[in-house]
Amino acid sequence: MKALLIGATGATGKELLQLLLNDYHTEHIDVFVRKNINIQHSKLSVHIIDFNHPENWKHLVKGDVLYSCLGSTLKDAGSKEAQKKVDYEYQCEFAKAAKENKVESYVLVSADFASAKSPFFYSKIKGQLEEDVKALEFSKLIIFNPPILIRKESNRKFEVMVVKILKFFNTFGLLKSSKPLPTELLAKALLNAFNTLSKGTYSIKGKEILTFASLINNKSN
């Protein structure tokens, strides 16, 4: 099986890439990045692309499953327009290219409370992305809606603060549905869900993510 991955330089994407390299189901991985990554492996091909010009790369989006871990923050992106490009436009273009090239499966990392009708900018663009991807009618579409993520060695001060606050409330049994999730567990859930679920459209959130993360489904080569 051939896997395609965008967002391989992010916290979840890095974890997923390592899992894919060690996954016995996965024979090859093509990653699409803006800058080169310092990883060499017999199963790995790295494509350095400009996401703004799909005409130059869409013919390369060929395989069995596309994993999308691409994402940004308003602070990192610099503006809402720039964030929308990363979190919505680039991913839509990749999904369309995958569908045109007969990629049957798509695994998408969305966000908690994603809704195209949301009054909040980030939740709205994530919800719009979900609706547009569903309209493409992949044979297998798995959408993950994780809570706030715990990233290793995160330098995002606001994110670190929110994680600490949620953990505090969690100790008293409050806000359990918003319990922060380590990116390594999300990555395991992404891979295990694809490897175990049959064709169809799925929305996975909350405790379901932890259920998939705990499956013993991966073997080393």
What does this structure look like?
- By secondary structure, the protein is an alpha/beta fold.
- The protein is 39% helix and 19% strand.
- It has helices at residues 11-22, 74-77, 80-100, 121-135, 157-170, 183-196, 207-213; strands at 2-6, 28-33, 44-48, 65-68, 105-109, 140-145, 149-150, 181-182, 200-205.
- Helix 1 links the parallel strand 1 (2-6) and strand 2 (28-33).
Topology:
Layout lengths: L1 E5 L4 H12 L5 E6 L10 E5 L16 E4 L5 H4 L2 H21 L4 E5 L11 H15 L4 E6 L3 E2 L6 H14 L10 E2 H14 L3 E6 L1 H7 L8
Parallel strand pairs: 1-2, 1-4, 2-3, 4-5, 5-6, 6-9, 7-8
Helix pairs in contact: 1-6, 3-4, 6-7
Strand-pairing-aware structural class = alpha/beta
- Element-by-element helix/strand order: EHEEEHHEHEEHEHEH
**What is the top-level CATH class?**
Alpha Beta
Low-confidence stretches: 157-169
How much of the residues is beta strand, in percent?
15-25%
Mean pLDDT across the residues is 88
- Radius of gyration (Å): 17 Å
Keywords for this entry:
globular, seven-stranded parallel beta sheet, alpha/beta, Rossmann fold, 221 residues, two-stranded parallel ribbon, 39% helix, 7 helices
Q: Concise description?
A:
By secondary structure, the chain is α/β, with parallel strands linked by helices.
